[in-house]
Amino acid sequence: MMGRIWTAYLVEWSKSLRLKRSYLWLLLVALAIGCSPFLRPVVGDSVGDYGFIAYVTPLAMNVLGFFLVLAFTAGLISTEMASGTIRMVLTRPIHRWEWVVAKLMAGLTYALIMMTLVSILSWAIVWVLGDLSGVTYGGELLSSHGEMVSAYTFGFFLSFFPIAAGVAFALAISTLTRSPISSVMATVGLWLALDFLKTPLGIDAYIFTTYLEMPWQHFADRCDGIATQESKDILHLLLCSGTTFILALFVAITSITRRDFSR
Amino acid sequence: MPPTIQLTKLCKSFGANHAVMDVSLEVARGEVLGLLGPNGAGKSTTLYMMAGLVRPNSGRITLFGEHFQHNRLSILKRMGVLLERPVFYEHLTVERNLKIHAQLSGVEVNLHRTLDLAGILPLADHRTSTLSLGMRQRLGLARAMVNEPELLLLDEPTNGLDVEGNHELLRFLRRLADEAKVTILFSSHQMHEVETLCDRVAIMNEGKLITCEQTESLLSYDQTQVEVLLEGADRAAKKLADLDWVAEIDVRPGRLRLRLKTANVHQLTSFLVNNGFTIAGIIPRRRTLQDYFLKVMNKQPEGDAS
């Protein structure tokens, strides 16, 4: 079983690596980060420069990066349904659910690449233009550079959960429509609708997008010299993202396994 | 040895449309079965169900003696499928498309050899989006055979092939069945292809299997239709026109094409000789599959035949 999923995943990647848009979208995010010093200058002051990272990473990842990851994943299955290649794949000795899991893994990998790119570039800009000697106030070292890297790594790790939920959500939408454009529009549209409505409806604690920003808050607080750790929030993030992930994957698998693929 | 294909009371409906109704069929190992029928007859749906793309509402599909639903993966490993209008990952090359299929099939094969067999080795590095219809069909066939299947499901495989390619493919498939004992289910609209290739012919209409016969028995000589080579064909036609056992006469220079109401060639010969005609030869007409197909379809209730 694992062998088949792994093979399907490698096949998925070999296809994605030959798509120009996979690179173009990464380039777009890289350009956005490259331009970010014009929005918030890197001043060569360690507090402000860590603050630059705390500003750029969530902005690039949670807005543009997240949008592109959703768009990438939303096209994974709908494109195959639109072109008919799904029929070729499903006549091969692989269970339908295994193929959906392979697609999910491809989406998660793309998200991870996007997150890594955003992180490397944000840190690289400050490394070249700014000061990374730790957070000091009035000559007192509040957080060393190592502690800041740890806080960032923790934020990176936590932020993967709501993003993974988003990937599963996009994949589920992708199985419900045969048109890649409709799939991308429906995914992004639902994401935006949820984001606008969740607070008025009082359901923001249950919507995974609420937790996109939260993992970076700890790092941003450290930049301001505050050491916080809200384990209750982290638990909510894990529960909400995990539930969304499982539900969305269930929808995607059910949709594909119950469908007939005639002409 | 169990039959390679065993369909039992297979049914499939799409809403109110009964695409396949109570189809039961057996195909032995190494046999080539032609599936004929007008558009919408249920041929493709039957193939799609056997390929695991469409779930039957009822009935049972047994392939290689195993229940398809319960042993899907082990059966698919032994199968090759070419559906009508094969589709590919258009942004990838011919070789990469084939490689993906081989990987998903869990086999390691010499891709160049497979491409060579399909006659598209020179196109290995071309993107599939640049291929002509005929070349796409060849790649589709290469893909269906990449795992050296024991059962091939082919839905109009010669679609888009030129005359030479068509002839080559039919010969190749026949060799596969005869030498490698590959079982082939071959759906086509081209009667002459089915006639040339298939051991048996099944005809479907409106979701039902109407008949399934040995091709050879369908193509036997028809003693009621004869061609008579003689001098004075015009005169002979006039004399024959008055006879009640002659149904149709078609006069050609130096010959007559006749349809007799009863198969009595001896009576015809005696009549012509007694009337002073010299017969150079009598050729009974061989039935074609098309004749049989049209005859079977006309037996259907009004409006069924197409």
Structure description:
The complex is a heterodimer of chains A (263) and B (306). By secondary structure, chain A is an all-alpha fold. Chain A has one domain. Chain A is built from nine helices and two strands; from the N terminus they run αααααββαααα. Chain A has a two-stranded antiparallel sheet. In chain A, a hairpin with a 2-residue loop joins β1 and β2. The longest helix of chain A is centred in the first third of the chain and has 38 residues, at 46-83. The mean pLDDT of chain A is 89. With 306 residues, chain B is α/β, with parallel strands linked by helices. Chain B folds into two domains: 5-218, Rossmann fold, CATH 3.40.50.300; 221-286, Alpha-Beta Plaits (2-Layer Sandwich). Chain B contains eleven helices and 14 strands. A six-stranded mixed sheet of chain B has the order 6-7-8-3-9-10, sandwiched between helices. In chain B, strands 2-1-4-5 form a four-stranded antiparallel sheet, covered by helices on one side. The A-B interface holds A 4, 7-8, 10-11, 14-15, 18-19, 83-85, 87-95, 260-263 and B 14, 44-45, 48, 51-55, 72-74, 76-77, 79, 81, 83-92, 96, 100-101, 103-106, 143.
Task: Identify the notable features of this structure and list them briefly.
heterodimer; A: 263 residues; mainly alpha; two-stranded antiparallel sheet; 2 strands; 77% helix; 3% strand; B: 306 residues; alpha/beta; Rossmann fold; Alpha-Beta Plaits; 2 domains; six-stranded mixed β-sheet; four-stranded antiparallel β-sheet; 11 helices; 14 strands; 30% strand; elongated; disordered C terminus
The domain tally of chain A reads 1
First-to-last CA distance of chain B: 38 Å
Outline the biggest β-sheet of chain A: 2 strands, antiparallel
Q: Tell me, what's the shape of chain A?
A: elongated
| N-to-C series of helices and strands of chain B | EEEHEEHEHHHEHEHEEHEHEEHEH
- What is the percent of helical residues of chain A? over 70%
